[in-house]
Write a structure and sequence with these properties.
The protein is an alpha/beta fold and about 300 residues long. The protein has eight helices and ten strands. The chain has a domain of about 160 residues: Ribosomal protein L4/L1 (Ribosomal Protein L4, Chain: A, 3-Layer(aba) Sandwich), CATH 3.40.1370. Helix 3 packs across helix 4. The protein starts with a strand and ends in a 6-residue tail after the last helix.
Length: about 300
């Protein structure tokens, strides 16, 4: 019989479905090709680096000694990640009320040309929302409700269901089984994850064309505060806007008149550069940053050397 000799199955590299069997070592092997123009002592291997024969006198191989390798391994030079592009250019507008370009400025690539990582942004937003939870929900168990612990009916003889005290979770007004208790929902998140989430959100705003740079966010002297701000947003066609402003001389860190105008508006939120976060950037359609706030943001990120 073909394939069987003395009751034993013949050794073959074809399985029972007729497919070629491949071993684990076979996946690591590469087919070698020898070329006539290849130099002596070098084997050219497809999809692999050339292997050099150390006994070839024409090949000079320099191997670092123990002291040099120790210096390389214990080098104290800081490692700076470079996973961001070059600087980007953006127009600078005069103000929200006089929205005309007056020049251009360069945006730091560390902030506005970083990899857009949706997974990191999702992680940061989830961390923000859980940190904002009050965690004050509380219910009473059957031991905490104000009822007597007396058994309300005999165990047997009535032909009805068995019951204990009046505070059982089965009854209306009884205790809650496995109910919520006050707890802290916040948890620590790595600083680099938070920074990279912020950089991803800023880069996404720039790529979507919803990032605007203005010289100042302050209201003009003859403005009527809130009504003029609403008219400016309607004129620009901005449904919702997050404004990042910084006032060097003010105590509130935001231009006082603009903060007063945007205080009662639901679709406009003003905050200083230190308050910029992923959740608010995703909640509002457009992002407006004043030049003083932009410079403060860039100074904040220039000191970080572990961005990735």
């Amino acid at each position: 019989m073909a394939g069987f000799i003395a009751g034993h199955r013949s050794v073959s590299n074809v399985d029972r479905w007729g497919r070629q069997a491949r071993c684990a070592m076979g996946a690591l092997q590469r087919e070698k090709h020898t070329f006539s123009h290849a130099p002596a002592g070098v084997d050219l291997v497809v999809n692999s680096t050339p292997r050099i024969r150390l006994n070839d006198p024409a090949v000079n191989v320099v191997i670092p000694d123990v002291e040099q390798r120790s210096m390389l391994e214990h080098s104290s030079a800081p490692i700076v990640a470079t996973q961001f592009g070059g600087d980007r250019e953006a127009l600078v507008y005069r103000s929200l009320y006089d929205f005309v370009p007056t020049g251009a400025t360069m945006l730091s690539g560390r902030m506005f040309n970083a990899p857009i990582r949706e997974d990191i942004v999702h992680t940061v937003v989830k961390w923000q929302l859980l940190s904002r939870r009050a965690g004050t929900a509380s219910t009473k168990s059957r031991a905490e409700v104000s009822y007597s612990g007396r058994k309300i009916a005999p165990q047997k003889g009535r032909g009805r269901a068995r019951h204990g005290d009046r505070g059982a979770p089965l009854f209306r007004g009884g205790g809650r089984s496995h109910g919520p208790k006050p707890r802290d929902w916040s948890y620590p998140l790595n600083k680099n994850v938070r920074r990279n989430g912020l950089r991803s959100a800023l880069t996404s705003k720039y790529a979507a064309g919803r990032l605007w740079i203005v010289q100042t966010a302050e209201l003009p002297p003859d403005a009527k505060s809130q009504s003029d701000l609403v008219d400016a947003m309607v004129r620009l066609g901005f449904e919702s806007t997050l404004v990042i402003d910084w006032d060097h001389a003010g105590e509130r860190k935001i231009s006082p008149h603009f903060e007063k105008a945007a205080f009662k508006l639901e679709n406009v939120l003003a905050m200083p550069p230190n308050g910029l976060n992923c959740y608010d950037m995703l909640s509002f359609q457009h992002l407006i940053i004043s030049l003083p706030a932009l410079h403060k943001l860039e100074r904040r990120f220039l000191k970080y050397t572990s961005l990735c």
